[in-house]
TrEMBL record:
Compositionally skewed regions (Pro residues) per UniProt: 53-64
Name by which UniProt lists this protein: Zinc ribbon domain-containing protein
Renumbered residue ranges of the record's region Disordered: 31-84
Signal sequence coordinates: none
InterPro entries for this protein: Regulatory_FmdB_Zinc_ribbon (IPR013429)
One matching Pfam family: Zn_ribbon_8
Record's compositionally biased regions (Gly residues): 75-84
NCBIfam families listed in its UniProt record: CxxC_CxxC_SSSS
Domain Putative regulatory protein FmdB zinc ribbon: 1-40
Length: 84
């Protein structure tokens, strides 16, 4: 069941609730059933294929420097650009 934001005009309270389909929850503050579903902004936090792995964004690990005398590419056959 997805999480939605709701507004209760009777007591001017905003709350969130897990609902299915077009269900309208009762206000937890005043008990009114006249609540309105609000449009929510999506969370910018993610780690992988949204929406399956939500979470904080992780920085990329630093690239290790290529050892001296070697070339990270294949243009020179991996012998190092200076040892062609």
């Amino acid at each position: 069941m997805p999480m939605y934001d709701f507004y209760c005009p009777a007591c001017r309270t905003e709350f969130e609730d897990l609902v299915f389909g077009e269900e309208t929850p009762v206000c937890p503050h005043c008990g009114s059933s006249d609540t309105e579903r609000q449009v929510s902004a999506p969370s910018p936090l993610k780690t992988g294929a949204f929406p399956f792995k939500p979470g904080p964004v992780r920085p990329m690990p630093p690239r290790s420097a290529a050892p001296s005398g070697s070339c990270p590419g294949t243009a020179c056959g991996g012998k190092g650009c200076s040892g062609q």
